[in-house]
Amino acid sequence: MDERSILNFIKFIPFYYIFSFIMAYIGYCLYFNVEFKKDIIIILFFLIITLSIITMYISKITKIKFQNFKLNLLNNENNKLENMKNILDELPIMIIYKDLNDFILTVNKEALTQLSISLENIINKPAKEIFPISFQKQYNDDLEIIKTKKGKFNLIEKLIINNKVLMVKTSRVPIFDEYNNVKNIIIFMIDITKKIKLENEEIKKNKLLYQQSKMASLGQIIGDITHQWRQTLSILSTASTGIKLKKEMGILEDSELISTMDLINKSTQNLSNTIDDFRNFLNPSNSKTKKFNIKQTVEQTLKILNVQFLSKNIRIIKNIDDIEIVSLEDQLILVFINILNNAIDALANLDSSIKKLILINCYKKNNYLIIEIQDNANGIDESIIDEIFELYFSTKTLTLDSGIGLYITMMLITNILNGEIYAKNEKFTYEETEYYGAKFTIMLQEKALSL
Questions:
Q1: Which pTM was predicted?
Q2: Going by C-beta distance under 8 Å and a sequence separation of 6 or more, which residues neighbour residue 66?
Q3: CA-based diameter of the chain, in Å?
Q4: What is the pLDDT of residues 314-358, one digit of tens each?
Q5: Pick from 353, 355, 399: which is nearest to 375 by CA?
Q6: Per-residue exposure over 252-291, b if at least 16 CB sit within 10 Å of its own CB, e if not
Q7: Which of 19, 120, 243, 321 has the fewest C-beta atoms lying within 10 Å of its C-beta?
Protein backbone atom coordinates (compact mmCIF):
# COMPACT_ATOMS: atom_id res chain seq x y z
CA MET A 1 0.00 0.00 0.00
CA ASP A 2 1.46 3.37 -1.05
CA GLU A 3 1.29 6.75 0.67
CA ARG A 4 -1.75 7.99 -1.30
CA SER A 5 -3.77 4.89 -0.48
CA ILE A 6 -3.02 5.25 3.23
CA LEU A 7 -4.09 8.91 3.26
CA ASN A 8 -7.34 8.15 1.39
CA PHE A 9 -8.05 5.35 3.82
CA ILE A 10 -7.65 7.76 6.77
CA LYS A 11 -10.13 10.19 5.16
CA PHE A 12 -12.62 7.42 4.48
CA ILE A 13 -12.80 5.96 8.02
CA PRO A 14 -15.07 8.60 9.75
CA PHE A 15 -17.44 8.78 6.79
CA TYR A 16 -17.74 5.02 6.79
CA TYR A 17 -18.79 4.89 10.43
CA ILE A 18 -21.21 7.90 10.20
CA PHE A 19 -22.80 6.52 7.02
CA SER A 20 -23.21 3.17 8.75
CA PHE A 21 -24.86 4.87 11.75
CA ILE A 22 -27.28 6.87 9.52
CA MET A 23 -28.30 3.76 7.59
CA ALA A 24 -28.79 1.88 10.84
CA TYR A 25 -30.96 4.74 12.20
CA ILE A 26 -33.10 4.90 9.02
CA GLY A 27 -33.52 1.15 9.08
CA TYR A 28 -34.59 1.29 12.72
CA CYS A 29 -37.17 3.99 12.10
CA LEU A 30 -38.61 2.20 9.07
CA TYR A 31 -38.75 -1.17 10.77
CA PHE A 32 -40.43 0.08 13.96
CA ASN A 33 -42.47 2.88 12.29
CA VAL A 34 -40.69 5.48 14.39
CA GLU A 35 -40.80 9.11 13.26
CA PHE A 36 -37.53 10.59 12.03
CA LYS A 37 -36.11 13.15 14.43
CA LYS A 38 -34.69 16.24 12.70
CA ASP A 39 -32.42 16.97 15.64
CA ILE A 40 -30.57 13.71 15.14
CA ILE A 41 -30.18 14.35 11.41
CA ILE A 42 -28.85 17.84 12.13
CA ILE A 43 -26.46 16.48 14.74
CA LEU A 44 -25.22 13.88 12.29
CA PHE A 45 -24.79 16.53 9.60
CA PHE A 46 -22.68 18.74 11.89
CA LEU A 47 -20.79 15.66 13.03
CA ILE A 48 -19.92 14.90 9.40
CA ILE A 49 -18.62 18.44 8.92
CA THR A 50 -16.59 18.30 12.15
CA LEU A 51 -15.11 14.91 11.34
CA SER A 52 -14.30 16.05 7.82
CA ILE A 53 -12.33 18.96 9.22
CA ILE A 54 -10.58 16.72 11.74
CA THR A 55 -9.90 14.10 9.07
CA MET A 56 -8.44 16.67 6.71
CA TYR A 57 -6.18 17.88 9.53
CA ILE A 58 -5.10 14.33 10.44
CA SER A 59 -4.52 13.57 6.76
CA LYS A 60 -2.36 16.67 6.38
CA ILE A 61 -0.37 15.83 9.51
CA THR A 62 0.03 12.23 8.32
CA LYS A 63 1.19 13.42 4.90
CA ILE A 64 3.81 15.63 6.52
CA LYS A 65 4.92 12.71 8.68
CA PHE A 66 5.21 10.52 5.58
CA GLN A 67 7.27 13.12 3.82
CA ASN A 68 9.57 13.49 6.81
CA PHE A 69 9.86 9.72 7.09
CA LYS A 70 10.75 9.39 3.40
CA LEU A 71 13.26 12.19 3.72
CA ASN A 72 14.86 10.49 6.73
CA LEU A 73 15.01 7.21 4.85
CA LEU A 74 16.63 8.92 1.90
CA ASN A 75 19.11 10.70 4.15
CA ASN A 76 19.90 7.46 5.97
CA GLU A 77 20.42 5.68 2.67
CA ASN A 78 22.65 8.48 1.44
CA ASN A 79 24.55 8.37 4.71
CA LYS A 80 24.96 4.61 4.39
CA LEU A 81 26.22 4.98 0.85
CA GLU A 82 28.54 7.78 1.91
CA ASN A 83 29.78 5.71 4.87
CA MET A 84 30.28 2.71 2.59
CA LYS A 85 32.20 4.83 0.11
CA ASN A 86 34.36 6.18 2.94
CA ILE A 87 35.03 2.64 4.13
CA LEU A 88 35.97 1.49 0.62
CA ASP A 89 38.22 4.51 0.21
CA GLU A 90 40.05 3.59 3.41
CA LEU A 91 40.66 -0.03 2.38
CA PRO A 92 44.28 -0.73 1.35
CA ILE A 93 43.16 -2.59 -1.76
CA MET A 94 42.08 -1.41 -5.19
CA ILE A 95 38.34 -1.65 -5.93
CA ILE A 96 36.84 -1.19 -9.39
CA TYR A 97 33.10 -1.37 -10.07
CA LYS A 98 31.96 -1.81 -13.67
CA ASP A 99 28.88 -2.72 -15.70
CA LEU A 100 28.32 -5.56 -18.14
CA ASN A 101 29.29 -3.34 -21.05
CA ASP A 102 32.75 -3.17 -19.50
CA PHE A 103 32.41 0.49 -18.53
CA ILE A 104 33.98 1.50 -15.21
CA LEU A 105 31.31 2.99 -12.90
CA THR A 106 33.40 3.90 -9.89
CA VAL A 107 36.70 3.19 -8.13
CA ASN A 108 38.08 3.82 -4.66
CA LYS A 109 40.97 6.09 -3.71
CA GLU A 110 43.48 3.25 -3.48
CA ALA A 111 42.81 2.30 -7.10
CA LEU A 112 43.35 5.90 -8.22
CA THR A 113 46.61 6.06 -6.27
CA GLN A 114 48.00 2.71 -7.41
CA LEU A 115 46.98 3.19 -11.03
CA SER A 116 48.25 6.79 -11.06
CA ILE A 117 45.07 8.04 -12.72
CA SER A 118 42.49 10.74 -11.97
CA LEU A 119 38.83 10.04 -11.30
CA GLU A 120 37.60 11.83 -14.44
CA ASN A 121 39.98 9.80 -16.59
CA ILE A 122 38.59 6.45 -15.45
CA ILE A 123 34.90 6.92 -14.58
CA ASN A 124 32.53 5.92 -17.41
CA LYS A 125 35.48 4.80 -19.51
CA PRO A 126 35.67 1.30 -21.04
CA ALA A 127 38.14 -1.03 -19.31
CA LYS A 128 39.61 -1.78 -22.74
CA GLU A 129 40.78 1.81 -22.92
CA ILE A 130 42.27 1.78 -19.40
CA PHE A 131 43.88 -1.68 -19.56
CA PRO A 132 44.50 -2.38 -23.25
CA ILE A 133 47.19 -5.04 -22.65
CA SER A 134 45.31 -7.26 -20.18
CA PHE A 135 41.80 -6.40 -21.39
CA GLN A 136 41.09 -9.58 -23.34
CA LYS A 137 41.85 -11.94 -20.45
CA GLN A 138 39.83 -9.80 -18.05
CA TYR A 139 36.92 -9.68 -20.49
CA ASN A 140 36.98 -13.47 -20.88
CA ASP A 141 36.91 -13.80 -17.08
CA ASP A 142 33.89 -11.47 -16.94
CA LEU A 143 32.04 -13.52 -19.57
CA GLU A 144 32.66 -16.64 -17.52
CA ILE A 145 31.38 -14.91 -14.37
CA ILE A 146 28.21 -13.78 -16.18
CA LYS A 147 27.64 -17.28 -17.50
CA THR A 148 28.34 -19.23 -14.31
CA LYS A 149 27.18 -16.52 -11.85
CA LYS A 150 30.26 -17.37 -9.78
CA GLY A 151 33.22 -15.20 -8.84
CA LYS A 152 36.85 -15.82 -9.75
CA PHE A 153 39.40 -15.45 -7.00
CA ASN A 154 43.16 -15.03 -6.52
CA LEU A 155 44.00 -14.44 -10.18
CA ILE A 156 47.53 -13.18 -10.83
CA GLU A 157 47.46 -10.45 -13.49
CA LYS A 158 49.90 -8.04 -15.03
CA LEU A 159 48.57 -4.50 -15.48
CA ILE A 160 50.25 -1.87 -17.64
CA ILE A 161 48.85 1.66 -17.31
CA ASN A 162 50.58 4.96 -18.06
CA ASN A 163 53.87 3.09 -18.54
CA LYS A 164 53.52 1.67 -15.04
CA VAL A 165 53.69 -2.10 -14.59
CA LEU A 166 51.80 -3.69 -11.71
CA MET A 167 51.49 -7.32 -10.70
CA VAL A 168 48.18 -7.75 -8.88
CA LYS A 169 46.22 -10.52 -7.20
CA THR A 170 42.65 -10.09 -8.42
CA SER A 171 39.23 -11.33 -7.33
CA ARG A 172 36.19 -10.62 -9.51
CA VAL A 173 32.74 -10.91 -7.89
CA PRO A 174 29.30 -10.66 -9.57
CA ILE A 175 26.58 -8.28 -8.31
CA PHE A 176 23.01 -9.50 -8.89
CA ASP A 177 19.71 -7.74 -9.57
CA GLU A 178 16.32 -8.67 -8.08
CA TYR A 179 15.94 -11.41 -10.67
CA ASN A 180 19.25 -13.04 -9.74
CA ASN A 181 20.90 -11.95 -12.97
CA VAL A 182 24.40 -10.49 -12.99
CA LYS A 183 24.10 -6.73 -13.40
CA ASN A 184 27.56 -5.50 -12.43
CA ILE A 185 31.00 -6.82 -11.52
CA ILE A 186 33.14 -5.62 -8.64
CA ILE A 187 36.89 -6.17 -8.82
CA PHE A 188 39.24 -6.34 -5.83
CA MET A 189 42.97 -6.02 -6.56
CA ILE A 190 46.00 -6.24 -4.27
CA ASP A 191 49.35 -4.94 -5.49
CA ILE A 192 51.91 -7.76 -5.18
CA THR A 193 54.59 -6.18 -7.38
CA LYS A 194 57.08 -5.78 -4.53
CA LYS A 195 56.32 -9.25 -3.19
CA ILE A 196 56.96 -10.90 -6.54
CA LYS A 197 60.12 -8.83 -7.00
CA LEU A 198 61.39 -9.97 -3.60
CA GLU A 199 60.48 -13.58 -4.40
CA ASN A 200 62.34 -13.39 -7.72
CA GLU A 201 65.35 -11.88 -5.99
CA GLU A 202 65.19 -14.66 -3.39
CA ILE A 203 65.06 -17.27 -6.16
CA LYS A 204 68.05 -15.68 -7.92
CA LYS A 205 69.97 -15.53 -4.64
CA ASN A 206 69.21 -19.15 -3.85
CA LYS A 207 70.21 -20.22 -7.37
CA LEU A 208 73.50 -18.40 -6.92
CA LEU A 209 74.05 -19.98 -3.51
CA TYR A 210 73.11 -23.37 -4.93
CA GLN A 211 75.67 -23.01 -7.70
CA GLN A 212 78.23 -21.79 -5.18
CA SER A 213 77.55 -24.77 -2.94
CA LYS A 214 77.70 -27.19 -5.86
CA MET A 215 80.96 -25.67 -7.11
CA ALA A 216 82.42 -25.96 -3.63
CA SER A 217 81.35 -29.63 -3.54
CA LEU A 218 82.77 -30.14 -7.01
CA GLY A 219 86.07 -28.59 -5.93
CA GLN A 220 86.29 -30.97 -2.98
CA ILE A 221 85.31 -33.97 -5.12
CA ILE A 222 87.85 -33.05 -7.82
CA GLY A 223 90.50 -32.77 -5.10
CA ASP A 224 89.57 -36.25 -3.86
CA ILE A 225 89.64 -37.65 -7.40
CA THR A 226 93.03 -36.04 -8.00
CA HIS A 227 94.37 -37.60 -4.80
CA GLN A 228 92.95 -41.01 -5.78
CA TRP A 229 94.36 -40.80 -9.30
CA ARG A 230 97.80 -39.84 -8.00
CA GLN A 231 97.78 -42.81 -5.65
CA THR A 232 96.64 -45.16 -8.40
CA LEU A 233 99.10 -43.74 -10.95
CA SER A 234 101.88 -44.15 -8.38
CA ILE A 235 100.91 -47.81 -7.99
CA LEU A 236 100.84 -48.27 -11.77
CA SER A 237 104.22 -46.57 -12.15
CA THR A 238 105.79 -48.66 -9.39
CA ALA A 239 104.34 -51.91 -10.80
CA SER A 240 105.40 -51.26 -14.40
CA THR A 241 108.89 -50.11 -13.36
CA GLY A 242 109.33 -53.20 -11.19
CA ILE A 243 108.31 -55.53 -14.03
CA LYS A 244 110.66 -53.79 -16.47
CA LEU A 245 113.57 -53.98 -14.03
CA LYS A 246 113.03 -57.66 -13.28
CA LYS A 247 112.69 -58.41 -16.99
CA GLU A 248 115.98 -56.67 -17.70
CA MET A 249 117.66 -58.66 -14.93
CA GLY A 250 116.09 -61.90 -16.18
CA ILE A 251 114.36 -62.69 -12.88
CA LEU A 252 110.75 -61.99 -13.90
CA GLU A 253 108.48 -64.97 -13.29
CA ASP A 254 105.24 -65.61 -15.19
CA SER A 255 103.09 -65.68 -12.03
CA GLU A 256 104.46 -62.30 -10.94
CA LEU A 257 103.84 -60.87 -14.41
CA ILE A 258 100.23 -62.09 -14.37
CA SER A 259 99.55 -60.73 -10.88
CA THR A 260 101.11 -57.37 -11.79
CA MET A 261 99.00 -57.18 -14.96
CA ASP A 262 95.90 -57.95 -12.88
CA LEU A 263 96.85 -55.16 -10.49
CA ILE A 264 97.34 -52.71 -13.37
CA ASN A 265 94.01 -53.76 -14.94
CA LYS A 266 92.13 -53.41 -11.64
CA SER A 267 93.69 -50.01 -10.97
CA THR A 268 92.78 -48.67 -14.43
CA GLN A 269 89.20 -49.90 -13.96
CA ASN A 270 89.05 -48.04 -10.64
CA LEU A 271 90.20 -44.89 -12.41
CA SER A 272 87.54 -45.39 -15.08
CA ASN A 273 84.82 -46.01 -12.45
CA THR A 274 85.84 -42.86 -10.60
CA ILE A 275 85.35 -40.81 -13.77
CA ASP A 276 82.00 -42.53 -14.44
CA ASP A 277 80.77 -41.70 -10.92
CA PHE A 278 81.81 -38.08 -11.32
CA ARG A 279 80.22 -37.87 -14.76
CA ASN A 280 76.93 -39.26 -13.40
CA PHE A 281 76.96 -36.55 -10.75
CA LEU A 282 77.26 -33.93 -13.49
CA ASN A 283 74.75 -35.61 -15.82
CA PRO A 284 72.14 -32.97 -16.91
CA SER A 285 69.42 -35.65 -17.01
CA ASN A 286 69.62 -35.83 -13.23
CA SER A 287 68.37 -32.23 -13.10
CA LYS A 288 64.96 -33.39 -14.32
CA THR A 289 62.20 -35.01 -12.31
CA LYS A 290 62.36 -38.74 -12.85
CA LYS A 291 61.86 -42.08 -11.16
CA PHE A 292 64.94 -43.51 -9.43
CA ASN A 293 65.88 -45.98 -6.72
CA ILE A 294 66.97 -44.38 -3.45
CA LYS A 295 69.38 -47.22 -2.71
CA GLN A 296 71.22 -46.65 -5.99
CA THR A 297 71.30 -42.88 -5.39
CA VAL A 298 72.89 -43.37 -1.96
CA GLU A 299 75.43 -45.78 -3.44
CA GLN A 300 76.31 -43.27 -6.17
CA THR A 301 76.84 -40.57 -3.51
CA LEU A 302 79.07 -42.85 -1.43
CA LYS A 303 81.20 -43.67 -4.48
CA ILE A 304 81.75 -39.95 -5.10
CA LEU A 305 82.95 -39.49 -1.49
CA ASN A 306 84.67 -42.88 -1.20
CA VAL A 307 88.20 -41.43 -1.18
CA GLN A 308 87.37 -39.29 1.86
CA PHE A 309 85.92 -42.25 3.71
CA LEU A 310 89.03 -44.33 3.02
CA SER A 311 91.55 -41.59 3.79
CA LYS A 312 89.89 -40.74 7.11
CA ASN A 313 89.14 -44.38 8.01
CA ILE A 314 85.36 -43.81 8.19
CA ARG A 315 83.07 -46.82 8.19
CA ILE A 316 79.64 -46.57 6.52
CA ILE A 317 76.79 -48.66 7.97
CA LYS A 318 73.82 -48.82 5.60
CA ASN A 319 70.26 -49.94 6.20
CA ILE A 320 68.47 -48.85 3.02
CA ASP A 321 65.16 -50.24 1.80
CA ASP A 322 64.60 -50.76 -1.91
CA ILE A 323 62.31 -47.77 -2.58
CA GLU A 324 61.62 -45.93 -5.82
CA ILE A 325 60.78 -42.23 -5.74
CA VAL A 326 59.94 -39.54 -8.31
CA SER A 327 62.07 -36.48 -7.67
CA LEU A 328 65.19 -34.55 -8.68
CA GLU A 329 68.10 -36.94 -8.19
CA ASP A 330 70.95 -34.42 -8.56
CA GLN A 331 69.39 -32.16 -5.91
CA LEU A 332 69.10 -35.10 -3.53
CA ILE A 333 72.69 -36.16 -4.20
CA LEU A 334 73.89 -32.64 -3.36
CA VAL A 335 71.88 -32.80 -0.13
CA PHE A 336 73.57 -36.11 0.76
CA ILE A 337 77.02 -34.72 -0.11
CA ASN A 338 76.52 -31.61 2.04
CA ILE A 339 75.38 -33.63 5.07
CA LEU A 340 78.05 -36.31 4.66
CA ASN A 341 80.79 -33.69 4.22
CA ASN A 342 79.76 -32.14 7.54
CA ALA A 343 79.92 -35.58 9.14
CA ILE A 344 83.35 -36.25 7.59
CA ASP A 345 84.71 -32.93 8.88
CA ALA A 346 83.36 -33.64 12.37
CA LEU A 347 84.74 -37.20 12.43
CA ALA A 348 88.16 -36.00 11.27
CA ASN A 349 88.57 -34.29 14.66
CA LEU A 350 88.16 -37.54 16.60
CA ASP A 351 91.09 -39.39 18.06
CA SER A 352 92.44 -42.01 15.65
CA SER A 353 91.81 -44.73 18.23
CA ILE A 354 88.04 -44.15 18.13
CA LYS A 355 85.89 -45.85 15.52
CA LYS A 356 84.52 -43.36 13.01
CA LEU A 357 81.00 -44.28 11.94
CA ILE A 358 78.31 -42.92 9.66
CA LEU A 359 74.91 -44.62 9.74
CA ILE A 360 72.52 -44.23 6.79
CA ASN A 361 68.93 -45.46 7.12
CA CYS A 362 66.26 -45.15 4.42
CA TYR A 363 62.76 -46.47 4.92
CA LYS A 364 59.10 -45.70 4.31
CA LYS A 365 56.82 -44.64 7.16
CA ASN A 366 53.27 -43.26 7.03
CA ASN A 367 53.61 -42.51 3.30
CA TYR A 368 56.85 -40.60 3.86
CA LEU A 369 60.34 -41.52 2.72
CA ILE A 370 62.54 -41.17 5.80
CA ILE A 371 66.29 -40.71 5.31
CA GLU A 372 68.48 -40.64 8.43
CA ILE A 373 72.21 -39.82 8.41
CA GLN A 374 73.99 -40.05 11.77
CA ASP A 375 77.62 -39.94 12.89
CA ASN A 376 79.39 -40.55 16.18
CA ALA A 377 81.35 -37.26 16.28
CA ASN A 378 79.89 -36.29 19.69
CA GLY A 379 77.11 -34.13 18.29
CA ILE A 380 76.47 -30.45 17.63
CA ASP A 381 76.66 -27.89 20.42
CA GLU A 382 73.07 -27.65 21.75
CA SER A 383 73.37 -23.85 21.98
CA ILE A 384 73.72 -23.56 18.19
CA ILE A 385 71.92 -26.61 16.84
CA ASP A 386 68.80 -24.56 16.04
CA GLU A 387 70.87 -22.14 13.94
CA ILE A 388 72.86 -24.52 11.72
CA PHE A 389 70.45 -24.15 8.77
CA GLU A 390 70.73 -20.35 8.76
CA LEU A 391 72.57 -18.61 5.93
CA TYR A 392 76.29 -18.03 6.58
CA PHE A 393 76.19 -19.73 9.97
CA SER A 394 79.31 -21.87 10.30
CA THR A 395 81.63 -23.26 12.95
CA LYS A 396 84.38 -23.82 10.36
CA THR A 397 87.23 -21.60 9.28
CA LEU A 398 86.02 -19.14 6.63
CA THR A 399 86.07 -20.75 3.18
CA LEU A 400 84.21 -20.36 -0.10
CA ASP A 401 81.23 -22.38 1.09
CA SER A 402 81.26 -21.40 4.77
CA GLY A 403 77.73 -21.37 6.13
CA ILE A 404 75.91 -22.14 2.90
CA GLY A 405 76.09 -25.96 2.71
CA LEU A 406 73.40 -26.71 5.28
CA TYR A 407 71.41 -23.61 4.29
CA ILE A 408 71.29 -24.84 0.68
CA THR A 409 70.47 -28.31 1.97
CA MET A 410 67.47 -26.94 3.86
CA MET A 411 66.36 -24.84 0.86
CA LEU A 412 66.63 -27.81 -1.51
CA ILE A 413 64.65 -30.07 0.81
CA THR A 414 61.88 -27.61 1.67
CA ASN A 415 61.52 -25.55 -1.53
CA ILE A 416 62.57 -27.95 -4.30
CA LEU A 417 61.99 -31.47 -3.00
CA ASN A 418 58.85 -30.55 -0.97
CA GLY A 419 60.14 -32.19 2.17
CA GLU A 420 61.36 -31.43 5.68
CA ILE A 421 64.73 -31.71 7.41
CA TYR A 422 65.62 -31.82 11.10
CA ALA A 423 68.83 -32.10 13.09
CA LYS A 424 69.32 -33.34 16.65
CA ASN A 425 71.88 -35.10 18.82
CA GLU A 426 71.13 -38.69 19.65
CA LYS A 427 72.69 -41.81 21.15
CA PHE A 428 72.88 -45.10 19.26
CA THR A 429 74.36 -48.52 19.79
CA TYR A 430 76.56 -50.35 17.31
CA GLU A 431 78.27 -53.68 17.96
CA GLU A 432 77.32 -53.47 21.65
CA THR A 433 79.00 -50.07 22.04
CA GLU A 434 77.09 -46.86 22.69
CA TYR A 435 77.92 -43.78 20.61
CA TYR A 436 76.67 -40.20 20.47
CA GLY A 437 76.45 -37.83 17.53
CA ALA A 438 74.42 -35.60 15.22
CA LYS A 439 71.47 -37.09 13.37
CA PHE A 440 69.95 -35.47 10.26
CA THR A 441 66.45 -36.65 9.34
CA ILE A 442 64.94 -35.94 5.90
CA MET A 443 61.24 -36.52 5.24
CA LEU A 444 60.03 -36.52 1.65
CA GLN A 445 56.28 -36.29 1.12
CA GLU A 446 54.04 -39.05 -0.18
CA LYS A 447 53.83 -37.60 -3.71
CA ALA A 448 57.59 -38.13 -4.05
CA LEU A 449 57.15 -41.87 -3.61
CA SER A 450 56.53 -44.20 -6.51
CA LEU A 451 53.73 -46.23 -4.99
A1: 0.49
A2: 3, 6, 7
A3: 175
A4: 999 999 998 888 888 878 888 898 899 889 888 988 888 889 999
A5: 355
A6: beeeeeeebeeebeebeebbeebeebbebbeeeebeeeee
A7: 120
